[in-house]
Predict the structure of Sulfhydryl oxidase.
Amino acid sequence: MTTKTARIETSINREEDVFLYLWKAHNLVNSRLHGRETEDPKFPKYQFPPQLSLSGMSTGNK
């Protein structure tokens, strides 16, 4: 991500937040590159995790 999107200093408050920050950064870059002529067809860009895999996930809130 960039300083325009989300500053790392304000996005990370706990050690676990690093993983979510990097995951969001990965998805932002993949979204930006998706469909470009330089995209490698063997490695298509998609958001992770796919929406289908989220259906059985819990938010951890009870």
Q: What stands out?
A: Residues 35 and 41 are 9 Å apart (CA to CA). The mean pLDDT is 73. Helices lie at 8-11, 17-33, 51-54. The radius of gyration is 14 Å.
